[in-house]
Design brief:
The chain is of the alpha/beta class. The chain folds into 3 domains: about 180 residues, inorganic pyrophosphatase (n-terminal core), CATH 3.90.1640; about 90 residues, Helicase, Ruva Protein, domain 3, CATH 1.10.8; about 110 residues, Diaminopimelate Epimerase, Chain A, domain 1 (Roll). Helix content is about 45%, strand content about 15%. It is built from 17 helices and 14 strands. A 6-stranded mixed beta sheet has the order 9-10-11-12-14-13. A 5-stranded parallel beta sheet has the order 2-1-3-4-5, with helices on both faces. β1, α2 and β2 form a beta-alpha-beta unit. α2 runs antiparallel to α5, α4 runs antiparallel to α5 and α11 packs antiparallel against α12.
Length: about 450
């Protein structure tokens, strides 16, 4: 039972939230638009459907105060459940009472009327031990233990947020042990299913330079290894799997990646027979649809509408193709500063994913990477670091929040990955501020880099 495995005060908040949901005739769900947020949305919408409660699902892309307030004011009298965002933004609607927030990001404390449930308030590391889908799954279990079968979508969000690297930890691990023990887990190559030629060609995590996006090169590799390209990734013989793993490992080593990325070559994968997809595939499909603005297609499918399956898979391949193309394009135009690297992305929804791929697999791991995507009025910012840099003092949540504030924007997130929205035209000033802050953090100076003016 859930109440036996989590902090009593944590359970009390979840129980309060679950009671409000069950006593509502209509619930609005607002989820962050990425793979984690959409996975969480599948969990929440599934339980609302089971309860016979009418609901409407929307997505949050902009997390600045003005836009957040506008979203809440759209339906001020309806119970709104916000997942994978909200803890830091609720300060902009302190009077709003009809809000339940399920979040895991860093946030500044403020006095609000909303029921703000954040994993970090209970000693849980929201960067590695709990994500948006974790919080949604906890709420599902608080409502009814029968909702344990939504485990695949909890895991989908964990994988999308990269909290599965090196095995699950913290709250994720606790849920795995309690609710995931009936699933068969296989330790294998961290590739998505289908033919092995497609699994490597479309692989972005790991990203194999000159193989990812290049089926001709993949076919040559497989021919040299004596592996038939049309073989399913799950039907490889042990000897074939071993030779392929060695070849792909050698490829990653040639890219001068760090240990963190090398760990992602293999992983624990679950084949969900009822879904006809593996855990990695569910996450990738949900995330891929999200990246091209088709978030609701996988939600629709996993809530029971089989008619959209072909469209969902097609969207996934389109997003993969675009992401691969953009990554190779951006790799040619990386700008260097003393303590950071940065680039301009061709599309906003892909900026974070491009940053993650470049940081882990294609660039030296001595500096964090910042990506910009300029819109008509604002510029979206996405930043990525590595665990090694975080151990040295990097905290991108602080960098994004403070540097964006000083140029008239807003931001936040995790120590290893964070984002911001800033006024267009302020990119150069932002880069200077962020570079100085990172320099200070990595020098053990608490983020107070040379020349940085801080608000008091």
């Amino acid at each position: 039972m859930l109440k036996d495995i989590i902090d009593p005060k944590f359970y009390e908040l979840l129980f309060r939230g679950s009671s409000r949901i069950k006593n509502s005739q209509y619930v609005r769900v607002l989820a962050h638009y990425d793979g984690d947020g959409t996975s969480a949305a599948i969990v929440l919408c599934s339980i609302l459907k089971r309860l016979g409660i009418k609901f409407h699902l929307g997505y949050i892309k902009s997390l600045d105060g003005e836009n957040f307030r506008k979203r809440i004011e759209e339906e001020p009298d309806s119970l709104t459940v916000i997942v994978d965002a909200g803890s830091d933004q609720v300060q902009y609607v302190p009077e709003a009472e009809n809000l339940i927030i399920l979040d895991h990001h860093f946030y500044g404390k403020s006095t609000v009327q909303a029921l703000n449930i954040n994993a970090r308030d209970f000693g849980i590391d929201g960067t590695r031990e709990a994500c948006g889908s974790t919080m949604a799954y906890l709420m599902a279990l608080a409502i009814d233990e029968k909702n344990r079968d939504l485990y695949p979508f909890f895991l989908s969000g964990v994988i999308a947020d990269k909290q599965d690297i090196g095995g699950l930890r913290g709250m994720n691990s606790i849920l795995e042990k309690e609710y995931g023990k009936n699933y068969d887990t296989v330790h294998t190559l961290n590739l998505e299913g289908g033919m092995v030629v497609d699994a490597i060609t479309y692989s972005t995590d790991p990203f194999f330079k000159d193989l990812t996006g290049n089926p001709e090169n993949v076919n040559k590799l497989l021919q040299n290894l004596g592996i038939k390209p049309e073989t399913s990734i799950y039907n490889l013989q042990d000897t074939e799997k071993a030779s392929l793993a060695n070849a792909l490992a050698a490829k990653l080593i040639s890219q001068n990646i760090g240990l963190e990325a090398m760990k992602y070559l293999e992983g624990e994968i679950i084949r969900f027979k009822d879904l006809d997809f593996s855990s990695k595939e569910v996450s990738s499909i949900v995330d891929g649809n999200s990246k091209i603005g088709k978030n609701s297609i996988p939600v629709q499918y996993f809530l029971g509408d089989q008619s959209v399956k072909e469209e969902m898979i097609s969207n996934w391949k389109i997003s993969k193709t675009k992401l691969i193309e953009y990554t190779y394009r951006v790799l040619k135009d990386i700008y260097e500063e003393d303590s950071i690297r940065y680039f301009y992305a061709p599309e906003g929804e892909m900026t974070g994913s491009i940053s993650g791929i470049l940081s882990l697999y294609l660039l030296k791991q001595d500096k964090p990477l910042i990506g910009f995507n300029a819109g008509s009025d604002n510029t979206k910012v996405s930043s990525r670091g590595t665990r090694k840099l975080v151990q040295r003092g990097l905290n991108l949540s602080t960098v994004m929040r403070e540097a964006s504030t000083q140029v008239g924007g807003s931001g936040g997130g995790h120590d290893i990955a964070a984002g911001a929205v800033i006024p267009r035209g302020k990119e150069k000033q932002f880069v200077e501020l962020a570079n100085d802050m990172v320099k200070g953090q990595l020098s053990g100076n608490g983020g107070k880099g040379p020349g940085l003016v801080r608000d008091t």
